[in-house]
Amino acid sequence: MLFNKALRGGVQSVLRLQSTSAAAVAATGSQNAPSTGFCFEMTDQQKEFQELARKFSREEIVPVAAAYDRSGEYPFPIIKRAWELGLMNSHIPEDCGGMGLGIFDSCLITEELAYGCTGVQTAIEANSLGCSHTWVQYRMSSTGDVLD
Predict the structure, then answer these.
(1) Is the pTM of this model over 0.70?
(2) Which residues of 23-44 are buried (b: 16+ CB within 10 A; e: fewer)?
(3) Rounded to whole angstroms, how far apart are CA atoms 88 and 99?
(4) Backbone φ, ψ for residue 49 (5° rounding)
(5) What is d(CA 120, CA 88) in angstroms, rounded to the nearest whole number?
(6) What's the rounded Cα separation, in Å, for the pair 13 and 19?
(7) CB under 8 Å to 117, separation ≥6 — which residues?
(8) Ramachandran class of 139: left when φ > 0, alpha when ψ lies in -120 to 50, beta otherwise
(9) pLDDT tens-digit profile of 69-128?
(10) What is the 3-state secondary structure (H, E, C) of the chain?
């Protein structure tokens, strides 16, 4: 019990330190200052992906989400459209044919898709679970190396 309290307090202190360090760098605008925290300021590319996912969610998911919930059908047309727009499997490395986006980028997309319907968002995002093994094998066979 005491250990859990100490651990929780330590983690909270570290998170608070990282948060304030990043905020200080953002407030001063100094790029040269060493940063020990996270910076959640979005790049232009991240803003574009967020807006694309937001528009897709509002225009293509929201209008049909209730119908898919009632019928229990798999949303194939939505999945196909999400694929066409590049909203699926964004984490696949560029050398494997993907966009190579990071975790934060994927979170931005996921958050916007979930606004429309968490069930459809899960259908879109769950596809990435099955492909990870495939691209690891592809990369290993094409380069002879393991992942860095």
Answers:
(1) no
(2) eebeeeeeeeeeeebeeeeeee
(3) 10
(4) -65, -40
(5) 12
(6) 10
(7) 61, 62, 65, 68, 69
(8) alpha
(9) 999 999 999 999 999 998 988 877 777 777 888 888 989 999 999 999 999 999 998 877
(10) CHHHHHHHHHHHHHHHHHHHHHHHHHHHCCCCCCCCCCCCCCCHHHHHHHHHHHHHHHHHHHHHHHHHHHHCCCCHHHHHHHHHHCCCCCCCCHHHCCCCCCHHHHHHHHHHHHHHCHHHHHHHHHHHHHHHHHHHHHHHHHHCCCCC
* Residue range 61-78, pLDDT digits in tens: 999 999 999 999 999 999
Compute the Cα dihedral for 55, 74, 108, 90 and give only its sign. Answer: negative
Amino acid identity, position 116:
G
Cβ contact 65:120 at 8 Å: yes
Q: Report the chain's C-alpha Rg in angstroms.
A: 20
